[in-house]
Design a protein that fits this description.
Length: 222
């Protein structure tokens, strides 16, 4: 009887969910960052291929073809989430590596007059270094990382116990509008201002990152 009672107790304990622990959102990103990058393969099924092969069937009715095309386009919009692109993926991986590193900051200082000259000779441009301690985002230092096929400046800020990595490098091409993302459990934002591209990423809540971005853009606009 004792064995039966113990077995029933164990069975109940396993079913009530109290022993289960949900993995933190950054765990998946850390695992992905450690995996070797593989070339993206064309999926065996694609809406575009379906539309191409069914085109002859639509040729007999122009109106039906337009309706079917609209349905295909609508399906693509609904099922494909916004993505950060290849550069955004590299920045996520870079941020995760820094979290796993014992030395996530190359130059440790809350003084922007110490951090800014540290980049001299390490980069072919001078990144703007802004003090946002009064807004609740103190500077922690900076480092040099490699993303987008070049060495870039990374300014490290803090919000309470959460690091905010700000990637800064010269802008290229047209200026995109400000955009916010959620990637691999991290909040991200990117924009261009004063000839520079900015990418910010953190594990803090998106509203805190938005406040950080607004404070930074306001300071730069002065």
């Amino acid at each position: 009887m004792d064995n039966d009672k113990a077995a029933r107790s164990l069975h109940s304990l396993l079913r009530d969910g109290s022993l289960y622990h949900r993995a933190p959102p950054h765990l998946r990103a850390r695992v992905l960052a450690g995996l070797p990058r593989q070339p993206r393969r064309q999926p065996w099924f694609a809406w575009g291929n379906l539309a191409f092969h069914l085109a002859p069937a639509w040729a007999g009715g122009a109106l039906a073809g337009v309706a079917a095309s609209a349905l295909v386009f609508g399906a693509l919009v609904l099922v494909q989430p916004p993505r950060t692109g290849m550069l955004g993926d590299e920045i996520v991986a870079s941020h995760v590596r820094s979290l796993m590193s014992q030395h996530p900051v190359d130059v440790v200082s809350t003084d922007r007059h110490t951090v800014k000259p540290w980049f001299n000779g390490r980069l072919d441009y001078a990144p703007p270094v802004i003090d946002l301690a009064a807004q609740g985002f103190p500077l922690a230092g900076g480092r040099v990382d490699y993303v987008g096929h070049r060495a870039v400046a990374v300014l490290v800020y803090r919000y309470q116990r959460h690091p905010i990595d700000l990637y800064v490098f010269p802008a290229q091409g047209r200026v995109p509008a400000h955009a916010a993302y959620s990637a691999e459990g991290y909040a991200m934002a990117r924009w261009q201002q004063n000839g520079m591209s900015f990418w910010a990423i953190t594990d803090a809540e998106p509203e805190h990152l938005n406040t950080f971005v607004q404070a930074l853009r306001t300071w730069q606009g002065n």
